[in-house]
Fold:
Amino acid sequence: VHKGDHPNTASFISSLANARLQFGRAKEAETLFIESMEMRQRLFKGDHPDVAASLCNLASVLQELGRHAEAETLYIRSLEMKQRLFRGDNQAVVQGMVNLANARKDLGRLPEAEALLIQALAMIQRVYNYDHAEVAICLNNLADVLLSSGRAKDAWPHLVRALEIWERLYEGDQPLKSKTIDNMAKAKESLGRPTEAEVLYVQALEMRRRLYRGDHPDVARGMNNLAGILLVLKRPAEAETLYVAALEMNRRHWKGDHPSVAFALRSLAGGRIALGRFTDADQHLVEALEMYR
Structure:
């Protein structure tokens, strides 16, 4: 229909890349996102919202592939472009700050991530002075960084407020609501209340199983988290069953080596150490290390 470069063609390629990413084909998604981005850069000279979106899309797949430093560079370029395009407070700028903060969290630069998220939360609350999904997202992401910083007490009020917003906005199951409940479970775990944490982990996992039919990274993550608290509660056999299921799901979803597969191997190794199966644990750790290398 369209010969050569065309905005609709670039959008179609980007949609195909997103679909490939959802099916765990991250390498193919990366190639397609690059193709879409380069087409948009030829179509639009200088700053353009579609170019900023392409930079962000490519950064997101690099994060999935564990290439966090490369992702950070692209998120910075995308955010700077959005700040030039949109003067003052703007939702697109907030999303750019949240993305960059998440990349810096993955790089272990928690104070920088926290500062960005505080700035993003203040801006989005000026844009929307009522219940809005973007406010809840900022609250949840800020709480996530605080949890990683060992500040569960500081994280808890943000999580309670985020969940209240989700429940007012959406009846029933919602992916981001499940993430907030999962973070609430982590907070309870950090505060030394494992029985309460288990209840919340079960709630988050059951919601994700209803949301996603078949294999999905969030379901695998939920099983892994629940298994971890079962270990704390001295129920290693139950934990092992969930660790095995999470690893198998990650292997099916992510073809070949992937950080999520390596993490699942490390987690299963911990479960098998608790059961006294040290030889099995050693094999899992060796396999995980080879993936990280």
Observations:
- The CA atoms of residues 129 and 135 lie 9 Å apart.
